[in-house]
Design brief:
The chain is α+β, with helices and mostly antiparallel strands. The protein has 20 helices and eleven strands. Helices cover about 60% and strands about 10% of the residues.
């Protein structure tokens, strides 16, 4: 019981800090004095950190007096997966959410300590405190992580098998949560700007920094989630348009639109209503995605089990939408821009196209995700929206995106001059044509690959030209650090990451080769130019798992695909693929079936196979590693954009 008392007491401290900070900010605004809310924010962080400390102690020591530990941990659970057990189920994941929310609130107060008397900062931090208090209340009520386990048990159920089979579980969820929680900052400042009426100052562009931080974390989290899916689920793919995958993609799309369009507001004073709407919509979509994953309304390998949080989360979603729409309507007169877009092919005109592209695709994804729920509610029968629906829109969208990335950084503001544009993109255009000629010489004829390479080289050329301009300017100033401080440097590195990622996706999906081969011990075969050899079985037994592994060599590299039965949770059996990866290609091997003397493996048994033979699934995917590399580069560029100098310092640079 002592862990229950300690954990709940820590949650009460966290809630007290959030509530106290909210009240302190309200009083500071009313009395027009500087706020002392930083102390309350620190108290809130300390409270949730203490609660997490109690839970981690219980997980690491396998203290089953807590029901959460008994349900998601076991004595044989390795240390890493005991630690990550914190976010392996609903209640613990909320603790991580609140930790990030309170830490970001504390960080915002530290960052804007010079502006602590500003009404915009005061109202924004009030909103952040309110969000932290809401999620803390969930843990003090229907999602209590510190429920006492009345039954005296010596062994727990252990984590879900898929959550103890790959170390990416240690980084993928925290990055996703950081992205979701990070979008609360631009939302809070959007609400604050609308309440105070100060919509014409530096605040919109200032919030781009925080949006980029959240966007970069979410981008990297999505890519690592795709990598986790690729390595664990055994199907050889990385994105299946699963509803929970879509829930993470939706705020990413609207945030991408915001990051670009807010630049136009800073330079031209345009898109004020649009940008505030995007900031509000992005946070609203994170709440909607949280509802999808934590209410049980969606069936997904990524979703949590059903809970009673659904009505509360959907209620918060509607509060966010109604509050945002009401304030936008109230401040409509102040938000009108004094100028318009001068030319459709100017830089601001292309940013409009960019926004239409991302928001339009977000609507398509949202409709495809929500439609099965609405159909079931109305007709009582289940229906699914498959990958072809999403892919039919994603493919042309990707082409238009690469075109915009190739042109937008090179065109001028307010006007369009074809001669100037050609002069700026001439080198990259000839380079792109040369790349196409090389592809044709290598007998690459598929239009999708040729178009993708052509546009990718164009887009990379535009990014490199912009980076070269920053480098030349830095050399003239004699300050290399100014390259890193330039607002365009991080953005262009992100563009390069997107280009690399796009090439990896297009090439790997266009030229993927999937085969099933039957091999007896000692036999070899060639699959798409890769020599695959099977040498025999190996049984592995330890307290965590029982596995039958196959000794397979791919071009001399030893792989161990397996079928693994994890102890706990009824002895869940999963396939464990093995991957030989390099920058040129991935060879993905799965243990699909066994015949004769292999019955102990737990794989599918094929009676018509010769004794000692196995069926291997072999998938060859070229350039797939470029997808993961592109994701890392995107994360790096996003971090550089966040840590550049503040708005006022840049303006004077």
């Amino acid at each position: 019981m002592i862990l229950t008392w300690l954990g709940r007491a820590a949650l009460y401290v966290c809630f007290l800090g959030a509530l106290g900070g909210f009240v302190e900010q309200a009083l500071a605004i009313r009395r027009r004095r500087a706020s002392r809310a930083l102390w309350w924010a620190g108290l809130s962080v300390a409270g949730i950190a203490a609660a997490i400390g109690v839970m981690e102690f219980a997980l690491i020591t396998h203290n089953f007096s807590l029901a959460y530990v008994a349900e998601n941990n076991a004595t044989f659970t390795p240390l890493l997966y005991s630690i990550t057990g914190l976010w392996s189920a609903l209640e613990g994941s909320l603790m991580l959410w609140v930790l990030l929310q309170t830490a970001i609130t504390f960080g915002v107060l530290i960052y804007y300590r010079r502006d602590k008397a500003e009404a915009v900062v005061g109202w924004a931090t009030m909103v952040l405190f309110a969000i932290g208090a809401f999620f803390t209340l969930l843990m003090m009520g229907p999602a209590d992580p510190f429920l006492h386990n009345a039954a005296h048990v010596l062994q727990g159920a252990g984590p879900n098998a898929l959550l103890q089979d790959n170390p990416l579980v240690a980084v993928h969820p925290p990055l996703l949560y950081l992205g979701f929680v990070g979008f609360s900052v631009p939302f809070a400042f959007a609400i604050a700007m609308l309440i105070t009426g100060r919509v014409h100052e530096r605040w919109p562009f200032e919030q781009r920094r925080w949006t980029v931080l959240a966007w970069g974390a979410l981008s990297l989290g999505i890519v690592l989630g795709a990598w986790w899916s690729y390595q664990v689920l055994g199907w050889g793919g990385f994105w299946g348009w699963d509803p929970v995958e879509n829930a993470a993609l939706l705020p990413w799309l609207t945030a991408t639109a915001y990051i670009h369009s807010v630049i136009v507001q800073d330079r031209r004073g345009l898109f004020r209503v649009w940008n505030l709407s995007l900031a509000i919509a992005t946070f609203a979509l994170t709440i909607l995605g949280t509802f999808f994953t934590r209410s049980g309304v969606l069936v997904s390998v990524h979703a949590f089990s059903s809970s009673t949080l659904g009505p509360l989360l959907i209620g918060l979603f509607f509060v966010v939408v109604v509050l945002g729409a009401g304030l936008l309507a109230w401040r409509g007169d102040r938000l009108r821009a004094p100028v318009g877009v001068d030319h459709p092919l100017s830089r601001e005109g292309l940013f409009v196209a960019n926004n239409i592209l991302f928001v339009g695709f977000a609507i398509v994804v949202l409709l495809g995700t929500v439609f099965p729920l609405l159909y079931q509610a109305i007709n009582g029968t289940q229906v699914t929206v498959g990958s072809p629906y999403f892919a039919s829109v994603a493919a042309p969208m990707s082409v238009v995106l690469l075109i915009l990335m190739a042109i937008a950084p090179l065109v001028s503001w307010r006007s369009a001059d074809a001669k100037v544009l050609w002069g700026r993109m001439r080198v990259s255009a000839w380079s792109a044509l040369a790349a196409v000629v090389i592809l044709l010489g290598l007998h690459v004829r598929r239009p999708v690959e040729v178009v993708a390479v052509f546009l990718s080289v164009l887009a990379a050329g535009a990014a490199l030209r912009t980076l070269r301009g920053s480098l030349v300017a830095a050399m003239r100033r004699g300050s290399w650090r100014s390259v890193l401080r330039s607002p365009s440097t991080g953005g262009m590195i992100v563009h390069l990451g997107v280009v690399i990622l796009a090439l990896g996706i297009v090439t790997s999906t266009t030229y993927v080769r999937r085969s099933e081969v039957t091999l007896a011990t000692g036999q070899s075969t060639v699959v798409d130019g890769q020599l695959v050899s099977f040498s025999g079985f190996r049984n592995i037994t330890d307290p965590l798992e029982t596995a039958t592994q196959l000794r397979v060599d791919v071009d001399g590299h030893r792989l161990w695909p397996a079928v693994t039965t994890f102890n706990g949770r009824g002895g869940t059996t999963v396939g464990t693929p093995a991957i030989d990866s390099n920058l040129a290609r991935d060879v993905y091997v799965t243990f699909d079936a066994v015949g004769g003397n292999g019955n102990t493996s737990g794989a599918q048994v094929e009676n018509n196979l010769p004794s000692g033979s196995v069926v291997l699934g072999v998938t060859v995917e070229p350039l797939l590693a470029w997808l993961w590399l592109g994701g890392v580069i995107i994360g790096l560029g996003s971090a550089m954009t966040f840590f550049r100098r503040r708005y006022g310092d840049e303006a004077g640079a």
